[in-house]
Fold this sequence. Notes:
PSTPO5379-like fold, 6 helices, homodimer, PSTPO5379-like, alpha+beta, seven-stranded antiparallel beta sheet, globular
Amino acid sequence: xxxxxxxxxxxxxxxxxxxxxxxxxxxxxxxxxxxxxxxxxxxxxxxxxxxxxxxxxxxxxxxxxxxxxxxxxxxxxxxxxxxxxxxxxxxxxxxxxxxxxxxxxxxxxxxxxxxxxxxxxxxxxxxxxxxxxxxxxxxxxxxxxxxxxxxxxxxxxxxxxxxxxxxxxxxxxxxxxxxxxxxxxxxxxxxxxxxxxxxxxxxxxxxxxxxxxxxxxxxxxxxxxxxxxxxxxxxxxxxxxxxxxxxxxxxxxxxxxxxxxxx
Amino acid sequence: xxxxxxxxxxxxxxxxxxxxxxxxxxxxxxxxxxxxxxxxxxxxxxxxxxxxxxxxxxxxxxxxxxxxxxxxxxxxxxxxxxxxxxxxxxxxxxxxxxxxxxxxxxxxxxxxxxxxxxxxxxxxxxxxxxxxxxxxxxxxxxxxxxxxxxxxxxxxxxxxxxxxxxxxxxxxxxxxxxxxxxxxxxxxxxxxxxxxxxxxxxxxxxxxxxxxxxxxxxxxxxxxxxxxxxxxxxxxxxxxxxxxxxxxxxxxxxxxxxxxxxx
Lengths: 263, 263
């Protein structure tokens, strides 16, 4: 059994496809870009693509599949978004119906898959630079919050930006901003540092998604645009069908973190 | 009569709308971002948006209008893509039908407008840095060439990348690359320096579009992805209706060149 932290993205996908891997993917295939997956029918795919184009910071597009084709030809040639994720969520009219291990029973000729950049890419860069990532230290999910920042709407898709939070000292926050702005396809630089109420967040200890983390003396909360935004907005639009990865169970691409630098 | 080089983008649009300005826009409203305009029906707008997403260097999206709405709310709130360009081209099934001064007679509820970044933005930056731009010196159109670089296709849209060429010394080319890579929404860094045949260009003195320019001793041709690419590809798809700006007669936005830096 190879150490899954040190394998390629293709190997993680192979294990997800074969059913050997059914759990979450953080820390696996280190150095390979992991992606959020959103699948919608063709009739609202234009709206969703436009929503992503209008809100690139929470919705950085890595690849979009052709309608009916499950292969992300740019991010992972030969891969299959129907089978290569460890666990999926299937929603009808905004309600979670099933958490399938593949999408073969759900796939249709009019479906379009979207792969969106994810915070793991910049978290790896932060850790390499010696900047702590508290929820990883505390072995929790990152805390996420709905904000008062309205996304630019597109057709049926509208709603607030969701942000993730990592506590840092001022010096660490400045270094983190410099590092993260090199990765626009992984949410880029923080959207806010310091004051939760400026974002409409009432209680930093009660995130809307994920787990609270400790903020230590001398630290302030640092907020990044979050890839949960497009999923939250898509669920709120209540489309007849919406398929996504299960949170934390990402699609691992063939792209390297360094491929996203400056892109 | 104000000097149109020193007015705002809004003033250029006002003069285009009123019919005072019917000519080309290079050099007008210096510092404001000028844009290519492509308008297609909703049924192929997803394909065109996807084509742009897959080919960001020739097709950098500045703004996309809602179907049926002629206002580019991000790039120029309050503006009207039907009237604010000095001259348009209207194509049916790939054939040029008319060069109207407004689109009111052509507009439909299912049309979607795309504003794409343009080389004027980086040319202004080059000139500011003392790097010569030959076709401006020679008062010609920039020479443009079809290449052997295939764009990533999307639905009905496929075809080769078109590039523009400016002759520079090696030192100037290196400086230009550093400057232009700061403007990914204006085609970014050059795609090739030096060898036309590497791009499948048979004769550098016979461009496919625009005019030839002099290449002096010690200079080499420097090639950039060109905003004519999406127009060439859109014409080749022969859609039932395609509306564009007339070459050189651009939509001038409210965005400043500096707004595009690093974006």
